[in-house]
């Protein structure tokens, strides 16, 4: 698989663009990445929400970004809250 990038250098996979790590949405993706390294594979939505909401982020934004992160990495199964 060839890697694709936007004109600004952001990586594109499965139709999703990975946000810059220094922005709020990029932080959410970093949390997902860290939790994905744990033995249970894909992070559970409630774990990511707990970390990000404690930091003052909107639960709606966090939930949307988790969905985008999952599509970016090709996770297709639905998960419970």
Radius of gyration: 13 Å
The whole-number mean of residue pLDDT values reads 88
Give the helix level as a range of percent: 40-55%
Structural class: mainly alpha
The share of residues in extended strands comes to 5-15%
Q: How many beta-strand elements?
A: 3
Major sheet: order of its strands? 1-2-3
How does the major sheet shape up?
3 strands, antiparallel
> Low-confidence runs (pLDDT<50, min 5 residues)?
none
Total number of helical segments?
3
**Cα end-to-end separation:** 32 Å
Q: Give the H and E element order.
A: EEEHHH
Overall geometry comes to globular
Characterization of the model:
The longest helix has 14 residues, at about 60-70. Helix 1 crosses helix 2 (about 45-55), helix 1 (about 25-35) packs across helix 3 and helix 2 (about 45-55) crosses helix 3. The chain is built from three helices and three strands. It has helices at about 25-35, 45-55, 60-70; strands at about 5, 10-15, 15. The protein has a domain at about 40-75. The relative contact order is 0.18. It starts with a strand and ends in a 9-residue tail after the last helix. By secondary structure, it is mainly α.
What's the short story on this structure?
The chain is mainly α. It is built from three helices and three strands, in the order E-E-E-H-H-H. The model has no long low-confidence stretch (mean pLDDT 88).
